[in-house]
Amino acid sequence: MGRHSLPDEHGTAAPGPRAQARGRTVAIATALVLVVAGGTAAAVSAGLLSFGGSCGDDAVSLDVVAAPAVSPALREAADEAREQEITSDGHCIDVRVTARDSYKVAAELRSGKGDPEYDVWVPDSDVWVQRVGIGGKQSKVSPAGNVASSPVGIGMVPSAAESLGWPKKTYDWPELTTAATKGDKLRLGAADPARSATGLLALAKMGASAKKQGGKEGDTRAAALAKALAARTTDSDGRLLDTLARDGSGTEQGNPRRNQALILSEQAAYAHNASAGEENSLDLFYPKDGSPRLDYPYTLVEDDRMSTDTSRAALRFMTMFSDDEGRRILTEHGFRTDPDQPSDKLVTAAGGRTPQPYADEATDPPSDKQLQETLGMWTITVQSARLNTVVDASESMAQFVPGRNQSRMEITKASLLRALAGFTDEDEIGLWEFATRLDGTRDYRKLEPTRRLGDRKGGATHRDELSDAFSSLQPVPGGATGLYDTTLAAYKEARSTYARGKFNALVILTDGVNQDPGSISRSSLISQLEEMSDREHPVPIIAIAVGPEADKDEVQQIAEATGGSGHQVDDPAQIHAVILKAIMEAGSNQG
Predict the structure, then answer these.
(1) Are 280 and 155 in contact (CB under 8 A)?
(2) Contact 490, 446 (CB under 8 A)
(3) Buried-most residue among 4, 358, 364, 474 (CB within 10 A)?
(4) Which sign, positive or negative, has the C-alpha torsion 590, 559, 394, 545?
């Protein structure tokens, strides 16, 4: 296969739990057919893969990258395979497990850059597999089943749980989150939903519940919950437990940097309680409107490039988690092996008690669209935005929109003004216009710099100046569409003025294809954009094709070269909604 072995970063792992295929798991029979070369699925189902015998000297190496929480259990299983000389087709399986954050692996695979140096990926949730498949030059991933599961709830130090009536009193997600974010007495921490499946699934559930209960006010309530949560997020799951109050002393409980409650998985609470001692253990709330679950999908990476021996060894290792020893390993690490019949002993160790609804069926997983909207809402609620808006001012923008007594430009301006109203004073927005030869030989003209909307110059804010500039946009008589040179220049500036801690993007609106014969070519533009784009400092292009003459494929190719998205609207009045949707999509691709 040409892959390099990964070192086992953590050596021998702590004991851990095991997970089991869930009811909603990817259909294993179908997945196996997809993931395995040369009839491996038939071999597994027919029991033709060897389960014992002498190893010999030709062990099959298998490199596995897994979420940090499940890596210790996988390492223990790998050790068991070596000790028991478990084989596949007569070959020992030599499994090496490396712990890596799931969001980092998802970003790497989605980029499609380089040759993954691992055969199997076990993230903590299928949301990361979905992320790889959203688009871009992704590496091929093929889920083969699920090796573990763990519901998500809210763990609290005993004094905080007692104040909320645990375990007898039950709450839904919005009630529990509101109770835990009201005032300073009870502080709720979470991991960044852009980097944590636990945080993302909980936020998606909160939002869905808030919208269901709140009607028209649901979006506002969901955003308010996200805003409150954002004040106490950590970069990753690994750092979350470090924010917990370390003891019951007044110093620790009163420390504003310490949390009394955390959004976390049952397995994370189990692992914490195993070493924390009774005084510092967590009690676990399971919201009554349903707990989402981490599902640990066992995923083959670029299986079409695997040798038959490697693919069979990968599946043989997965089957270990369906036997008694595999279940024991997973259970001892705090994972559920049967999500429909959880172990009372495991739940108790994790901090759960009756009548908390810990045995209830998991909520349906959020759809791709729900996840995208959740991440988008998180992005624009929590982060300030830095956007440069580039608007087509070519003569064709004077054409009237069918059925409307307004030109494309007039409706575009109204839609931009409406979008502007949705940004806060902390957001930074600028404006360029473009046609052909607007400023000497240049096809573009800078009308307003990208500055904070609340900044004042004289008696007016930048928001006021930008509103006036939007309102003053006019089609240029005889002006053609100088799209390529403008896009390149605007992107170079956006990259050079990148603002850390903000959502950076370039928004381009055009009603036509490039009409400047003296400009760079499309292929040259795309090549340069790809070269300049930086995953660590993303500046996605949000390109909107306005009207029937605009080429959606063209703007899509240009935008996707930067990790952005291209859209087409027949009516400029749709621009406002498309900008928000595109920001959500671009925001969901970051992290």
Answers:
(1) no
(2) no
(3) 358
(4) negative
Q: Is 237 exposed, middle or buried (0-12, 13-18, 19+ CB in 10 A)?
A: buried
What's the one-letter identity of residue 536?
A: E
Give me the pLDDT at residue 50, please.
39
DSSP code of residue 181: H
Q: Where does the pLDDT of residue 15 fall: very low under 50, low under 70, confident under 90, or very high at 90 and above?
A: very low
Predicted confidence at residue 315, as pLDDT, reads 96
Indicate whether this model's pTM tops 0.85. no
pLDDT at res. 510: 93
408, exposed or middle or buried, with CB in 10 Å at 0-12, 13-18, 19+?
buried
**Which residue has tokens 């805003």?**
227
Neighbours of 434 (CB within 10 A): 29
Q: Alpha carbon 155 to chain centroid distance?
A: 23
Identity of the highest mean pLDDT range in 198-202, 439-443, 567-571, 578-582? 198-202
- Three-state DSSP class for residue 460: strand
Averaged over 531-545, what is the pLDDT? Answer: 92
SS3 string, 305-372, reads HCCHHHHHHHHHHHHHHHCHHHHHHHHHCCCECCCCCCCHHHHHHHCCCCCCCCCCCCCCCCCHHHHH
Please report the sign of the dihedral spanned by the C-alpha atoms of residue 23, residue 24, residue 26, residue 30: positive
CA distance 188 to 351: 17
Please check the confidence at residue 541 and state whether its pLDDT lies above 70: yes
Question: Using one digit for the tens of pLDDT, what is the confidence trace for 191-224?
Answer: 999 899 999 999 999 888 877 776 556 666 777 7
Q: Helix H segments across 126-277? A: 126-132, 158-163, 173-181, 197-214, 218-230, 237-240, 250-254, 266-276
Tokens representing residue 51 in the block: 């389960």
Token reading at 572: 């400029």
Distances (CA, A) of 436 to 205, 397, 470, 481: 49, 13, 19, 6
Please report, as a single letter, which amino acid is at residue 195: R
As a whole number of Å, the end-to-end CA separation of the chain is 30
